[in-house]
Amino acid sequence: MQSFISDFLDYLNVECGSSPNTISAYNNDLQGFSRCLADIGVATVNRIRPPHVIRYAAALKERKLATTTIARRLVAVKMFCRFLTNEGYITADPTATITSPSLWHRVPHVLNVSEVEKLLAVEWHGPVGLRNKAIMEIFYAAGARASEVTHLKPADLNLDSGCIRCFGKGSKERLVPIGERAVDALRDYIEQARPILARGKNTPNLFLSYHGRPMRREDMWRVVKQAAKRAGVDKKVYPHILRHSFATHLLEGGADLRAVQQMLGHADISTTQVYTHVDTDRLSTVHKRHHPRA
């Protein structure tokens, strides 16, 4: 089983151009599937049958995992089995007739404008402080993912035109405009702080740790959590909530859905449409609060 999983991961890397994070996630999901098969005595891929996949899904449900998590893990299994079929390792796809669990579009948690302003108004000090301020501004100004901010290079910035280049899922490239405050924060960091943090090293990444090493996604999480604590924002705050807030605030301000889709780097506009539900929810709250017959 492991050799087939390894071949599949190579396929994702070489032919699909999937990101390391995506490949790691698929590997984790398929290792879980492999363990489930081993528990029921299925040791080779040509013995996988639809009831085995259904049993795996049932086991996930028994663990009280979220529907979205179960659906994602089944997608990994489906892609794996389709790969095995296309490569001729098995004669029939055991997942062909199995559908993913029905999903309600989950309305993402967002911060209101006042809460975001508090986060961005946090006072930082020293070279690390200038770096943290630039990171916070970028998250909200560009709606970027933590992995995208982590891998930014100085060459990805065009501060004169006020835009940055992000590489999203599948290494898809997009240009995203950013505002003046984000541009100013980046200039301050690049001119005053980054040379100090680099410590004479020729490190390609834009954002560097105190020791001059490239920052990791975990470091980005810590910066955002620290900002939330300092700002006194009493919500669970993480990098992706700033991405959600970016999209929601744009749509609430009248931005075109297609434009928001491009800025977020969504391949399918239905993914972006989830943010319209946030605005609908806000309008419903306003209606209930102010309508005499609500």
Any chance you could write out the topology, listing elements then pairs?
Blueprint: H1 2-14, H2 20-39, H3 50-62, H4 67-86, H5 113-120, H6 126-142, H7 146-150, E1 157-158, E2 163-167, E3 173-177, H8 180-198, H9 217-231, H10 239-252, H11 257-264, H12 269-290
Describe the structure.
This protein is mainly alpha-helical and 294 residues long. The protein folds into two domains: 2-86, DNA polymerase, domain 1 (Orthogonal Bundle); 113-289, Orthogonal Bundle (hpI Integrase, Chain A), CATH 1.10.443. 59% of the residues lie in helices and 4% in strands. It has twelve helices and three strands; from the N terminus they run αααααααβββααααα. The protein has helices spanning 2-14, 20-39, 50-62, 67-86, 113-120, 126-142, 146-150, 180-198, 217-231, 239-252, 257-264, 269-290, and strands at 157-158, 163-167, 173-177. A three-stranded antiparallel beta sheet has the order 1-2-3. Helix 1 (2-14) packs antiparallel against helix 2 (20-39), helix 6 (126-142) packs antiparallel against helix 8 and helix 6 (126-142) crosses helix 10 (239-252). The longest helix has 22 residues, at 269-290. It is globular, with a radius of gyration of 22 Å. The relative contact order is 0.10. The model has no long low-confidence stretch (mean pLDDT 88).
